[in-house]
Amino acid sequence: MFKMLKEIYETGNVLDNLYKNEKEKLKRISEQFEKFSPSCVIFSGRGSSDNACIYGQYLFQSKLKKVTSSALGSLFAFYNSFPKLDKTMVVGVSQSGETDDVIEVLKKSLNENSFTIGLTNNINSTMAKLLKENAIYLNAGIEESVAATKTFISSIAVFYMFSKLINKEVIKIDELKNLLNFVISKENEIKEIAGKFLFVQDVIILGTGFNYSIALEGSLKLKETCYINAQGLSIIDFVHGPFAMLEPHIPVIIFAPNDETIEVSKKVIKRVKNVGSHILVVSDNKEVLKEGDFSIEILPTDKELYPFEMIMFMYLFSYYLSISKKLNPDKPRFLNKISKI
User: Fold this and answer.
1) Distance from the Cα of residue 84 to its chain's centroid
2) What pTM value is reported for the model?
3) Beta partners for residue 18, in sequence order
4) Which of 119, 123, 169, 296 is least enclosed by beta carbons within 10 angstroms?
5) Residue 338 lies in a domain
6) Beta bridge mates, 282
7) First to last CA, the chain
8) Residue 160 neighbours by CB under 8 Å, 6+ apart
9) What is the pLDDT of residues 135-179, one digit of tens each?
């Protein structure tokens, strides 16, 4: 067993530890958030951490009713020309806690007395030392595989927990674990489907709303572990230009949860089928599942929890496709766990 799969299996324990060890800290930070009452929230991350930030943006705008944006890291790290951060909450995400431009964003935020927090998996990192009590530990243990899995899921779980605490709602950790375990129970089915993509060189991954971040993260995993030209796109953006690149030999993976986005998913699936491309559908909608050349059924849940199911599918799919290609998913070529320019 490669370490990537082992770390995927560890996700349930990671969520237990995250909830047990960080809930009180998150509760305190949520109280500070309400007292500070930021007018907007800026997120900073790179790679998988940036994809987690995009999930956070959707969640904070939807559930906390705050304007959100991504920090333009180069403005902070190179140009020294960044926006005023008064009345702003700044959130940095770095599994290693050492990502250069994320650290620069956090330093500038602290200098301007903004409400600043960070998510990291390294309690001895630069980020943790910089933010002290406002550093949230992902509790994922050592992640040895270069391809991040459990740390990404822990990161989006922090955002989920935080939004629930702000709104005084119940954090459904057991439900969240059940969703992930249900997808893992389909491991053999996912392995079989992944094998059918053995000779694929290009693939398009579509998700909208809360699952847009998962389209991005899923495409990143296929690039890292399988060396496939995977394009993660918003379903809406896809039909506003990139659709023109679609050809029958390019398969499409589409996340189609049975939420408010289901009708647009149906329309795009129909258009893709008209081109002749094969479609892999991940959904809990029986009607939509029948439209796929391949399909994986997930469990119905809250719209903000669907991404956890979708990304667990993508991690297993990427892992088994990598194995089918006789690659080492733990050690992608040219990459290291901590990326430096």
Assistant:
1) 28
2) 0.96
3) none
4) 169
5) no
6) 255, 296
7) 31
8) 59, 171, 176, 304, 305
9) 999 999 999 999 999 999 999 999 999 999 999 999 999 999 999
Residues 114 and 235 in one domain: no
**Domain presence at residue 95:** yes
Examine residue 178 and state whether it is found in any structural domain, yes or no.
Answer: no
Q: Which of 293, 297, 136 is nearest to 200 (CA)?
A: 293
Q: 341 in a domain, yes or no? A: no
Per-chain mean pLDDT for the chain = 96
Report how many domains make up the chain.
2
Q: What is the pLDDT of residues 200-256, one digit of tens each?
A: 999 999 999 999 999 999 999 999 999 999 999 999 999 999 999 999 999 999 999
Continuous H helices in the chain: 3-9, 11-36, 48-63, 73-77, 100-111, 126-131, 150-166, 173-184, 187-195, 212-226, 235-238, 262-275, 286-289, 306-324
Please check whether residues 156 and 219 belong to one and the same domain.
no
CATH number of the domain to which 130 belongs: 3.40.50.10490
Which residues have a Cβ under 8 Å from the Cβ of 33 and sit 6 or more positions away? Answer: 89, 115, 162, 166
Closest CA to 46 of 79, 76, 82, 11: 76
Residue span of the structural domain in which 139 resides? 3-171
